[in-house]
Amino acid sequence: MSAFMQTLVWGIFAGAIYGIAAMGLALVFGVLKILNIAHGELVMLGGYVGFWAFTALGWDPFLALILVIPATFVLGIVLDRVIYRYVVRLWGEEKIKNSLLVSFGLGLVLSNLAQWVFTGDERSVQPSYAGQGLDVYGVLMPYTRLATLGIVLVVTVALHLFLRKTYPGKAILATAEDYESAELAGINIDRVYMLTFALSAALAGIAGQFVTFTYALAPSIGMFWTLKAMIVIVLAGTGSILGALPAGLVLGVVEALSGAYLAQTYKELVGLVIFLLVVIIRPQGLFVRK
Amino acid sequence: MLLKLEEVSKAFKGLMAVHAVSAEVHEGEILGLIGPNGAGKTTLFNLITGVYPPTEGRVFFEEKDITKVAPHARCWMGIARTFQLVRPFPELSVLDNAAMGRVYGRDPIKSRSRAETACLESLEIVGLTGRASEKAKSLTLVDRKRLELARALAAKPKLLLLDELLAGLNPSEVLTSMQLIKSIRDMGITIIMVEHLVKAVFGVADRIVVLNAGELIAEGTPAEVSSDQNVIDAYLGKSLRV
């Protein structure tokens, strides 16, 4: 029983990172209506910012978030100004196709750039308290994982409050619902898209920082995280931004359980099977009412 | 002169939706825009609000050339509209819908409480005060039309474009809406209205512009327009008694 509980807990911890990585992708998909294949590369770059903050500056991995968040937010603004704002302006099929092509290309550029600058070595960060944690009836909960889960919850609630309670947030929702109507109500949708993309990049950066001490960091991890995030937003239901968290937790738990009870190699497969089942049986997603 | 269109044309893949239309809108008037289906009325609205640029010609607002100005910036200058197919933000509350206009439109109020008070006034004008906290999607068609009007008013427009505001309303609702349009004009807001209910437009408009197949075929007071032979041939079919 305790082994089962332990697996479940690992799954939840992993799912929290999936959730926050996917939330950024869902935000851009829901508001800009483009699929950003380079989202995983933003996760990777956020991770490197945190890695160097730890290695070169000696910052605690959680403290490093105060550097990672603004850095990736600014990176988001730059990418929006230089690339994405031109993609957003396209229409219909041209828009979604070009968003795939452009962001796939950008992903390659970013990962190769990272390989050149940071080398292809796998990196990870181990704070001094990495091995410590709580032991709850035989179920181990490392402090780093608990803090990760806590931060993910706080960020999700903050994003929810920002979108639902503030006017800039409501302007983002209004633009997502009807950008033409929004701009005729005086909302500068160009700015809304920029802010949204920057927020998405910052969310990716936070996920990346968690990757540095939970998994391993390398220039090539981008596609892995884009795919995980895509599976999660399909589970959540396209258009559901905050649904990414519960959907991420579901994916994390399912992967952990199948890794433990089937075989570690089938872990990825089970996630994809669930993805297909959801697409076939409940295409609107798990967390969206019809 | 509030708005001036100078030889404005719009082509969609070779199809001329609007062809060399020149027109002027005077401050404080209600201008009726009529014409058969496909005459280019909504296209003309889209050119005025900046949804897309004209293929040729120029648009002036308060003597300034706004041909290349983005839609949100035109809203800041004082141009607001409602849509033929209503488009409030369904997931936002009625109050927040109006607030978008008040917080992001012309002469914006950034303070939340003052913006909300101002929005309640716009909602009061259209008679939606009691439903401020409901989501826009729960409203009936008539109320969603009213909400769109409130959102446009909240943006403090100088020029208000009404696209088929009366369509789908019952006769008594048409009457109250016509009263509403007049009272909005009396607040100092210039109005251009596209309408299929010719009788209603003739009853409320100071001047009428008639479009047919993308071209302006007549312009004048309701009496002049209704006796114009071009209009009768193209649109009315028989002489109108108004």
SSE diagram, text form:
The complex is a heterodimer of chains A (290) and B (242).
Chain A: H1 2-32, H2 39-55, H3 65-88, H4 92-118, E1 133-136, E2 139-142, H5 143-165, H6 167-177, H7 179-184, H8 189-214, H9 222-236, H10 244-261, H11 267-281
Antiparallel strand pairs in A: 1-2
Chain B: E1 3-12, E2 15-25, E3 30-34, H1 41-49, E4 56-61, E5 64-65, H2 71-77, E6 79-81, H3 94-104, H4 112-126, H5 141-154, E7 159-163, H6 171-186, E8 190-194, H7 198-204, E9 207-212, E10 215-220, H8 222-226, H9 229-236
Helix pairs in contact in B: 3-4, 3-5, 4-5
Highlighted features:
heterodimer; A: 290 residues; mainly alpha; ABC transporter involved in vitamin B12 uptake, BtuC; 11 helices; B: 242 residues; alpha/beta; Rossmann fold; six-stranded mixed beta sheet; four-stranded antiparallel beta sheet; 10 strands
What does this structure look like?
The complex is a heterodimer of chains A (290) and B (242). By secondary structure, chain A is mainly alpha-helical. Helix content of chain A is 73%, strand content 3%. Chain A has a single domain (2-281), classed as ABC transporter involved in vitamin B12 uptake, BtuC (Orthogonal Bundle), CATH 1.10.3470. In chain A, strands 1-2 form a two-stranded antiparallel ribbon. Chain A is globular, with a radius of gyration of 19 Å. Chain A starts with a helix and ends in a 9-residue tail after the last helix. The model of chain A has no long low-confidence stretch (mean pLDDT 92). With 242 residues, chain B is an alpha/beta fold. Chain B has a domain at 3-78 and 157-236: Rossmann fold, CATH 3.40.50. Chain B has helices at 41-49, 71-77, 94-104, 112-126, 141-154, 171-186, 198-204, 222-226, 229-236, and strands at 3-12, 15-25, 30-34, 56-61, 64-65, 79-81, 159-163, 190-194, 207-212, 215-220. In chain B, strand 7 (159-163), helix 6 (171-186) and strand 8 (190-194) form a beta-alpha-beta unit. The longest helix of chain B is centred in the C-terminal third of the chain and has 16 residues, at 171-186. The radius of gyration of chain B is 18 Å and the shape is globular. The model of chain B has no long low-confidence stretch (mean pLDDT 91). The interface between A and B is medium-sized, with 18 and 32 residues.
